[in-house]
Amino acid sequence: MGPKRIWRLVSSPVAIRLLSIIVGFASSVLINRSLGVDLRGGYTTITVYASLIQSIANLGITFAYVPLIKIFGEQRARSGVLTLIWGQFAFYCACLPLILILLPERGEVASICILAIAQILANQIVFIALIENIRKRNLILLLSSVLYAIANFFVFLLFPKSLFAIVACLIGKAIFEIVACGIQEHLFVVSPPLLDWAFIKETLRLGLPTAVLALLIQCNYNVDVIVLNFFNSGDYEIGLFGTAYSLSNMLWFIPDAFKELIYHDSARNRMDARTICLVLINMAICATICIAFAFLGEWFLGLVFGDAYRAAYPTTLVVFIGIIPMVAFKLIHPIYVNEGKSGRVVALLMVSVFMNLVAAAALVPAYGAFGAALSTVFSYTICGLMFFVTYIKETGVTIAKVRQEFVAIETALLK
Q1: What confidence category does residue 6 fall into, taking pLDDT thresholds of 50, 70 and 90?
Q2: Residue 125: its pLDDT value, please?
Q3: pLDDT digit string (tens) for 342-367?
Q4: Which DSSP letter does residue 397 get?
Q5: Long-range contacts, 398-407 (Cβ 8 Å, 24+)
């Protein structure tokens, strides 16, 4: 492999995204060491509830962007979606003071609401930047991850045990991504005259099912934290599970990077056999990491996060195992979303979430964080199998086509 080929591989959108996730791991280490297990539980609760709010409150507007381009043309779709995004952001900011007045425990509620609003806009702007120019968008996210790690380092030095300082860093990260992606891709657009009822109705028709989908995805990942809170398991157990969940996000970094590539490529091309290839490749990589963690995980947790986090080893290992089948969902559902088939994804996810909720309710009272991890594996396995089997049946992908695609990928890498 020549130097030019190596540079193209290293500077590819996937490689850049992987590097930003690796930098993000440094932030995870700093956060865990700064907070300790108990405060880590409080941080997990705040971030999980903020994620649940933003996943449904964004109304799925940006996920309707690709189908809207096919219906209204790129210029009108772009301007209309951006106008809706900024109008939505202004509305939520106007509602924030009223929410804080009406709800108790204003410190925690304020953190959740402000973080949710910032993440709504950040995720929307970053998603449009993904469709417009995936490489430049990923470079911005890499810079964002570096600055976020630096900010967490100063919090670790100057404000240890400060939960709200850590949350403030996360809010600042979202604001940076909004501004940077907005400037890079010229996304500060508000054009009310371009909006009419037909455009808004079509956007909501396409977007709302995807918002429900996003909520179900978050529930499938985070319902265990809700159940742990419901049964008053305590911040320590939530901290253990939160550690496992944050580390699983590190393991997700490979499927997530390829998921974004699939979002980008499937918006313009069919890639049935290639998707199955990517699923199998990612499963193999995740399985290899799981085997390594089985032998070195407890030592790794103690070395990186501190001895108190060794207790999270069995919970983390179980969650890691659950990621392997869930790769199929991660890489297949973007294709359904881009094809405007979010309803199908919602139906399959509802089954998985229900199974997760039932299993968590049965296991959490007796086993705490470890029971939450077991319920996660159960639901992830069901979810991954459903998506994998359904996609193969619908596309008619054969073993021969998958083998040909493997050869094509290998040839492309070796050129």
Answers
A1: very low
A2: 93
A3: 777 778 888 888 888 888 888 988 88
A4: -
A5: 401/272, 401/273, 402/273, 402/276, 402/277, 402/280, 404/273, 405/273, 405/274, 405/276, 405/277, 406/277
